[in-house]
Amino acid sequence: MKGFQLITFVLFFFTIAFLFCQESPVLYHSFKPGQIWYDNNGIIINAHGGGIFNHLDTYYWFGEHKIAGPAGNKAQVGVHCYSSKDLYNWKDEGIVLHVVENDSSHDIAKGCILERPKVIYNRKTKKFVMWFHLELLGRDYRAARSGVAVSDNVTGPYKFLKSLRPNKDQWPQNVLDIHKKPVKEDVKKTAYSGGSLPGHTDSLNILGRDYPGGQMARDMTLFVDDDEKAYHIFASEENSTLHIAELSDDYLSHSGKYIRVFVGRFMEAPAVFKRQGKYYFIGSGCTGWAPNAARSSVAPSIWGPWRELGNPCIGPDSSLTFFSQSTFVLPVIGKKETFIFMADRWNPQNPIDGRYIWLPMKFQADRIILEWFDEWDLTFLDSKKE
Length: 386
Ligand code: GAL
Description:
By secondary structure, the chain is mainly β. The protein is 10% helix and 37% strand. It has five helices and 21 strands.
């Protein structure tokens, strides 16, 4: 056999083998947290650090598309979208925001870090708006920026608009006098590790340091209130403190109104939702890809005061959030005041094999309760205990 024929034969053989090895689509009727989850094409769902957005009775799941191996911790592809009517079975809607190849100076150049994308809809402009945590190529986690992309269609394509550090030249509503004092030169020059600080965030005055250039923004979520006002909630001040920042009416920038919450508590992976007129927060501590105990909190207004409620998880592995980290809390359509906790079980050695941990949320008065289930379905939420 000549070389060319041999190559053709080998290619043909592997193509046929590949087609036969594809899993046939599975029809799901339940959630199995931590198990492999296939899409409508029999391919494993790839939407990490995700959020779900409901539009015209369809759910859209947006998340980070990861690849195999440690390179998958950086953005090699972009943001992946799936749609579903029942939350169990997901249709692949493709990559809706692509990283940019062949231009390493682009804000979303291939190999940058693009995490925790979230999409909301602006009724006034009729645009779908995506925000995400962005770290510029080659700068590790030092840039701490937010990216914005927009589309006329929920399933994209999303056009990258800009990246920024929020609230440049703006003081928060709850600014302290100490923040308006001069910042020490060594604090100005230092990039801290993001997991601890050599002093309290207020005495170091990280807020004041970043006032002229904009505040750091890493792990993030979006929340739209009943009055259509939208909020960007992100880990700021070297991860030490969360900021809750109102977005402009078109959702494309910040209005300049914001507060600092959980000061010095190093909260990450924020998720915010509203129940019975109260605002709830779930997040994590700050230990990178490694799991830690979840945090929760409640407030009468998005502007606080936020009262911490402790770890919402109970039972075995509750001190490690069942080996996962929060990413979103999903209100279920047609089941009033019922919510699903969504989290990621990260796998930094092989990020494509990160798993999804979805659990039903229960409440005891104000307290959120999260308990492990190997398998559960939406009827579980009908019997939720108050
Ligand atoms: C986590 C964060 C992830 C990712 C990771 C990198 O704390 O929640 O989104 O940024 O750190 O180490």
